[in-house]
Amino acid sequence: MVGFFPPTGTITVDQIYVHYQVPVAAQRKPLVLVHGCCLSGKTWESTPDGRMGWDEFFVRRGFPTYVVDQASRGRSAADTSAIVQVKSGRAGSDKLPDVFGAGQESAWQIFRFGPEYPKVFPGMQFPLEAQAEFWKQMVPDWSRALPTPNPTVPALSELARKLNGAVLVSHSQSGIYPFEAASIDQRSIAGIVSIEPGACPKASDDMSIYKGMPILVLWGDYVDQHERWAGRLKACREFASVANRAGAKAEVVVLNDVGLPGASHMLMQDKHSLKIGAWLADWLDRHIAK
């Protein structure tokens, strides 16, 4: 017992926290921004060195903008019942949830600040002078302890329905979620923007759910210098090719190829993040009906 609270009772789990801003007389489809591994909705709110984040930027560009904390992350409470059961002796330690925190050294390489810690890729645009502020954004990640599909997926589908159609914008670990949400109800998904996804749908999957759907898979720089990301880019290109043969409108874009070099994995926080955001806003205006 902690204070006045006994180790029994009812708690709410598997929900997602969402905060939003809606421009006056908005005409564009809402954007739902979903963060990646070991992070929260803070990813989109501002940059580590204090510049405008995509949350505010896209509102200023006329998009209703919804920022999510994934289930069991950040402001979305986690299910601690397994911990309570082990602590009280009702379950063995093997039942403890698989919760992890990413180390800064490994994140440095995975986020492609450089080939290895503390080396830096030439021309890399992440504001490393403010890295101490970025590391403060890292939070415990419960995704390995959650069921499949992650509870965030049906919650995103529900949110898109409530918004009468939305563009789901995912990043990294959450990259596959918009595709999984489309498999629940593709009618509520106005488009998908998957930024450096941990995975794209397999080329052998059913592609009929993406027929007519605008899809952008967006990549930063130095991908070919990291085996993990190079393989994922290749798989996403294979997906896009197969999906387009089934009637999708899928594109895979590497920012260096459109004149925006130096982007890290955290491209929404890079020094040229607003230029990347402006490029993305123009893409959305060309592909997503108002």
Q: How would you describe this structure in keywords?
A:
globular, alpha/beta, seven-stranded mixed sheet
Describe what this molecule looks like in 3D:
With 290 residues, the chain is α/β, with parallel strands linked by helices. It is 29% helix and 13% strand. The protein has nine helices and seven strands, in the order ββααβααααβαββαβα. The protein has helices at residues 42-45, 54-60, 81-87, 104-110, 131-135, 152-162, 177-184, 227-245, 273-287; strands spanning 17-21, 31-34, 65-69, 166-171, 189-195, 214-219, 249-254. The protein has a seven-stranded mixed sheet with strand order 1-3-2-4-5-6-7, with helices on both faces. Strand 6 (214-219), helix 8 and strand 7 form a beta-alpha-beta unit. Helix 6 (152-162) crosses helix 7 (177-184). The longest helix has 19 residues, at 227-245.
Condensed summary:
The protein is of the alpha/beta class and 290 residues long. It has nine helices and seven strands, in the order ββααβααααβαββαβα.
